[in-house]
Specification:
The protein is mainly alpha-helical and 145 residues long. It has one domain (2-144). The chain is 78% helix and 0% strand. It contains 6 helices and no strands. The two termini are 26 Å apart. The relative contact order is 0.13.
């Protein structure tokens, strides 16, 4: 629930920020220098946190139509494959976020001079959440089977 609320707050911030950017450009005839950086930061975090929420809810990309047509044993196997692929994807996000750390720690944004770690930090955070939610779903599925 916390992650969903954070996504909602980030979305509200994104909408407000883009509104201010459009207002400043077309009404005030002077663009705020920082609005696109804030929008990008909000959007990146929404994407990775939202992906974790989708995994938590079981609404991530999978071929549900195909899996539902399989025999029970094959469907169970397919669910395991989906879980493994989801955990692997989360692992790639964590590894990528960790791998980019040395470069991102030396970079800052132009307007706000924010560390790029604020941007790239969404990768490992989202990856850890995706892995945790996928494993929790697998555990619950095994307990009910």
């Amino acid at each position: 629930m916390l992650i969903e609320r954070l996504c909602l707050l980030l979305m509200l911030a994104l909408v407000g920020d883009v509104f201010l950017g459009v207002f400043s450009r077309y009404v005030m005839q002077a663009t705020f220098a920082w609005y696109d950086e804030v929008a990008r930061l909000c959007f990146i975090w929404i994407v990775f946190l939202g992906a974790a929420v989708a995994v938590k809810r079981g609404q991530h990309f999978r071929m549900k139509l195909l899996v539902d047509r399989l025999a029970p044993g094959a469907a169970r196997f397919a669910e395991h494959v989906v879980t493994l692929a989801t955990v692997a994807f989360g692992g790639v996000l964590v590894a990528g976020g960790y791998g980019i750390y040395p470069i991102a720690s030396r970079q800052v944004t132009d307007a706000l001079e924010l560390s790029m770690l604020w941007f790239y930090g969404a990768l490992p955070v989202g990856g850890v959440l995706i892995i945790g939610y996928a494993l929790r779903q697998a555990w619950q599925r095994e307990r009910t089977a």
